[in-house]
């Protein structure tokens, strides 16, 4: 393997060129120092990037996101107090009460975009990144990383948080609001998700997966 | 005409995998690295993008016209649309929040529909635009799309929280579903569009 500060391991079968996402021009793949990125020489679009300590950061942010997701589901997000009547809600209950009122479609959308997809994304990232950081491959790694790249735009944790801020402002004139543990956990979950996904450069990860699988194949044959 | 110094994948019969980016022979059909189907360009990109766009426009209208939520207080029901929500924040001088909702819920979806329409028109040669500008527009469109979901989540939070039997309760209005559908459709439309088509068009025109 190459020294970790410059570039990332590439398989012998890895393609020598990369094609720009925008203009399709072929560019030779070069190994980058950490923190550097490569741009297309024709249109200037970004092609790939060597993000700092990508694997370690992804693992630590994903582990904290996993823990926070549990807290988010268990603890109340917001509570209301209006002339003696109390009401409190977890993020999960935001989805289920819509279901009870007959709005199944938005109920499912909320549950999927805020709880299911982010959880699946975190677990999938861990399944791929932990073995990669140990130089190992696990069965199904390729299929699972395909899922990660497909699902990424559909996890909307940050958007929900903006929605929570707007809701707070709408509610201040109606009742006393208390912010729950779930709310703070959610804010940290948002930061962890952004940190975990922000450390993943898909180009780098696919190269690493290809390299690890090639090495494992060679080891079994020798 | 100047000979192009940088080779184009399409002209070399190569294609980058849409899933993992591996550059390989188009004739391979399946990516050697991730197994996805290999296409030089996203299949039926323009048709699919336009169809999804048309469906989004249809959903955009009820999303903005119908009430997004209904507040029942001591027997009185008051419904509010996205725009009336913006107006009520504006009246109490909560300008940043009024602007945020307006931008995320009305402006971004509208501009996104327009931008994707213009990109499709550029790719088929009906509109002239520099491909670099088209790149920037496409990049922005993909980036901001999901933020329009914010109002659907506001409704989800308010419905879940404000539920004081007989005194005050909030229910979702028909616009909430229309809104969620619209955001999902525009995200799919942006995903269906292949920005390489704009460059293909420019290169074709430069050769003629
Ligand atoms: Zn380019
Ligand atoms: Zn592939």
Q: Helix/strand-derived class of chain A?
A: alpha+beta
N- and C-termini, Cα separation of chain A: 18 Å
What low-confidence regions of chain A span 5 or more consecutive residues with pLDDT below 50?
Answer: none
**Gross geometry of chain B:** elongated
The CATH class of the largest domain in chain B is Mainly Alpha
Low-confidence stretches of chain B: none
Strand-residue proportion of chain A:
5-15%
**Tally of discrete structural domains of chain B:** 2
Chain-averaged pLDDT of chain B: 91
Largest interface: A-B, 69 and 68 residues
> Radius of gyration of chain B from the CA trace?
22 Å
Number of strands of chain B: 6
The secondary-structure element order of chain B is: EEHEEHHHHEEHH
Major pleated sheet of chain B: 4 strands, antiparallel
Quickly give the structural class of chain B.
Answer: alpha+beta
Report on this structure.
The complex is a heterodimer of chains A (222) and B (208). Chain A has helices at 54-74, 91-100, 104-133, 141-151, 157-171, 181-198, 202-221, and strands at 17-19, 26-28, 37-39, 46-49, 78-82, 85-89, 176-179. Chain A is α+β, with helices and mostly antiparallel strands and 222 residues long. Chain A has a domain at 53-200. In chain A, α1 packs antiparallel against α3 (104-133) and α2 runs antiparallel to α3. Chain A is elongated, with a radius of gyration of 21 Å. The mean pLDDT of chain A is 91. Chain B has two domains: 1-40; 44-207, Butyryl-CoA Dehydrogenase, subunit A, domain 3, CATH 1.20.140. In chain B, 56% of the residues lie in helices and 11% in strands. In chain B, the strands form two sheets. A four-stranded antiparallel β-sheet of chain B has the order 4-3-6-5. A two-stranded antiparallel ribbon of chain B has the order 1-2. In chain B, β3 (69-73) and β4 (76-80) form a beta hairpin. In chain B, α1 runs antiparallel to α3 (95-123), α1 runs antiparallel to α6 and α3 crosses α4 (131-144). Chains A and B meet through β1, β5, β6, α2 and α3 of A and β1, α3, α4, α5 and β5 of B. Bound molecules: zinc ion (ZN) (2 copies). One zinc ion binds at residues 20, 22-23, 25, 40, 42-43, 45 of chain A.
């Amino acid at each position: 393997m190459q020294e970790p500060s410059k570039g990332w391991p590439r398989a012998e079968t890895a393609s020598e060129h990369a094609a720009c996402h925008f203009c399709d021009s072929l560019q030779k793949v070069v190994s980058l120092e950490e923190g550097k990125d490569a741009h297309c020489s024709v249109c200037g679009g970004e092609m790939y990037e060597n993000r700092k300590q990508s694997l370690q950061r992804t693992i630590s942010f994903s582990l904290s996101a996993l823990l926070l997701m549990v807290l988010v589901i268990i603890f109340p997000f917001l509570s209301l107090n209006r002339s003696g009547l109390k009401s409190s809600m977890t993020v999960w209950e935001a989805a289920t009460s819509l279901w009870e009122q007959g709005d199944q479609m938005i109920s499912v959308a909320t549950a999927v975009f805020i709880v299911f997809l982010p959880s699946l994304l975190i677990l999938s990232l861990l399944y791929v990144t932990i073995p990669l950081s140990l130089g190992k491959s696990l069965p199904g790694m390729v299929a699972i990383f395909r899922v990660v790249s497909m699902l990424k735009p559909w996890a909307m944790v940050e958007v929900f948080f903006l929605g929570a801020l707007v809701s707070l402002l709408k509610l201040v004139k109606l009742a006393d609001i208390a912010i729950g543990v779930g709310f703070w956990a959610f804010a940290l979950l948002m930061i962890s998700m952004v940190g975990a996904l922000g450390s993943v450069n898909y180009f780098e990860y696919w190269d690493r997966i290809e390299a690890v699988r090639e090495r494992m194949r060679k080891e079994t044959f020798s | 005409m100047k000979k192009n110094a940088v080779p184009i994948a399409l002209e070399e019969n190569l294609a980058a995998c849409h899933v993992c980016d591996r550059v390989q022979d188009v004739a391979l059909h399946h990516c050697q690295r991730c197994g996805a189907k290999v296409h030089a360009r996203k299949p039926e990109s323009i048709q699919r993008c336009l169809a999804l766009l048309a469906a989004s426009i249809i959903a955009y209208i009820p999303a903005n016209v119908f009430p997004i939520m209904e507040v029942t207080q001591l027997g009185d029901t008051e419904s509010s649309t996205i725009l009336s929500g913006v107006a009520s924040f504006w009246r109490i001088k909560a300008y940043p929040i009024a602007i945020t909702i307006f931008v995320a819920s009305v402006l971004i979806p509208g501009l996104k529909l327009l931008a994707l329409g213009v990109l499709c028109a550029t790719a088929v040669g009906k509109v002239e635009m520099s491909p670099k500008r088209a790149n920037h527009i496409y990049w922005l469109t993909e980036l901001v799309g999901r933020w329009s979901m914010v109002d659907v989540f506001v409704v989800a939070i308010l419905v879940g929280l404000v539920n004081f039997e007989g005194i005050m309760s909030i229910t979702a209005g028909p616009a909430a579903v229309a809104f969620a559908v619209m955001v999902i459709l525009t995200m799919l439309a942006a995903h269906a569009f292949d920005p390489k088509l704009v460059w293909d068009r420019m290169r074709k025109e430069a050769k003629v």
